Amino acid sequence: MDIKEQVVLVTGASRGLGAAIAKAFGRAGAKVVVNYYTNKEKAEEVVEQIGRDHALAIKADVRNQEEVNTMFIKAKKHFRKPISTIVNNALIDFTFSGELRNELDSIKWSEFETQFEGSVKAAFHTMKAGRSDMVKQKFGRIINIGTNLVQHPVVPYHDYNTGKAALLGFTRSMAKELGPDGITVNMVSGGLLSKTDASAETPDAVFELIKEGTPLQKVTTPEDVADVILFFASPWSRAVTGQNLVVDGGYVMD
Fold this sequence. Notes:
This protein is an alpha/beta fold. It has helices at 16-27, 40-50, 65-79, 109-137, 158-178, 204-212, 222-233, and strands at residues 7-10, 31-36, 55-59, 85-88, 140-147, 183-190, 244-247. The protein has seven helices and seven strands; from the N terminus they run E-H-E-H-E-H-E-H-E-H-E-H-H-E.
């Protein structure tokens, strides 16, 4: 299915990487569901930038299955066809600040649970809600957002890194189950992105260190990652599933 024929859900799409992904799909001609949880104003701005004929903002807590199910129903009714492509991007209660991160002696198990829910539970809910229509179409594209910190925890955000590592395992397991129905499940893992709300607390010196250690001599942007996500939604990736593509300018070579 060409991207122009797809209805794409981007979770956590009101700002940062999610907004960049939503706008990239909009430029490619897809219909886009801009999911948000608290920031309606920012979500509506993304819709305006894409164009109201091609985008719809829907509030839903992706940790809640009923709210996710309702979001899928609303999107199908609005666009008159079901969601075909899911980008699981939502980030729950997390800011990248190495100085403020909790270490082993201070971190609580509840912080791990928060990240498991934002990563694995949220993806579980969207896949459950979207599978039936994808099976009927014999087509589905699911792209989960990971991090290069799983491969190289240059900053050991224990809860966040562990949640994304679990999401990678979930990605590969679901790729095995859903493949026979024409549904691919992949992961795109960016590095520290310049600059989003989540990375706003990261000192400029850290960005400079990453730039110096990266073969391309640049810090990856949300737009860089968004373009790779388009590949996984496109017909060009039809034989690719269960993969994790690291998009960080070569900082991590896996």
